[in-house]
Amino acid sequence: MSSADRGVREALLDAAARLLVERGYRGVRMQDVAAAAGVSRQTVYNEFGDKWGLARAVVIRDNGRYLDGIDRVLSEHRGVYAAVTAAVLFTLEMSADDQLKKLVLTGAGGDEMLPLLTTQAEPVLFTTSARLTEHALRQWPDLDRGALTEITDAAVRLTMSHIMLPSCPPEAFAHVVARMVVRYLGVPEESPAAAAGA
């Protein structure tokens, strides 16, 4: 993809994200996205196929930006417990402030986009789990890949569930997930105080 093509795609995704937040999925037309990006409607169809493909691309890009943040958060901690706690808190805080995720999760303007993070969430879930696993293996190469892959997927799904239906305060939930992860992996469980100072 050329720089010009990437520029058009990014402009379309920016416009679509803005319009989705403002109007909800039902209120966005491909023509509106094209006009906001200064291109023809056919260009939008050529790039994304249909409105669902466009919405999916917006969510996948948003998830990629979130994962860039997670990479930074994980890298700031030496211990697994501290890193998981910080990553979960980062996820919950970012989700609370992310208007696009709120739109998808709450069904504002219709619940059409909810499957992108539930029943049709494979691109987001698989990408998230795989990237977290690879980061963890680079940072803690002694971890067992199979066990890490399993517990990462479970932790991601549990955190997504908590975002949609919180069961306890964010800090408490982050420590629940961290305890689950380190116990499954068989690595030392740090005290909350130690984790905070890691």
TrEMBL record:
It comes from the Bacteria. Gene3D superfamilies: Tetracycline Repressor, domain 2. The keyword Transcription regulation applies. It holds the Pfam family TetR_N. PROSITE patterns: HTH_TETR_2. GO terms for molecular function: DNA-binding transcription factor activity; transcription cis-regulatory region binding. GO terms for biological process: negative regulation of DNA-templated transcription. Residues 29-48 bind DNA. SUPFAM superfamilies: Homeodomain-like (SSF46689). Residues 6-66 form the HTH tetR-type domain. Keywords: DNA-binding, Transcription, Transcription regulation. This is TetR/AcrR family transcriptional regulator. It comes from Actinomadura rubrisoli.
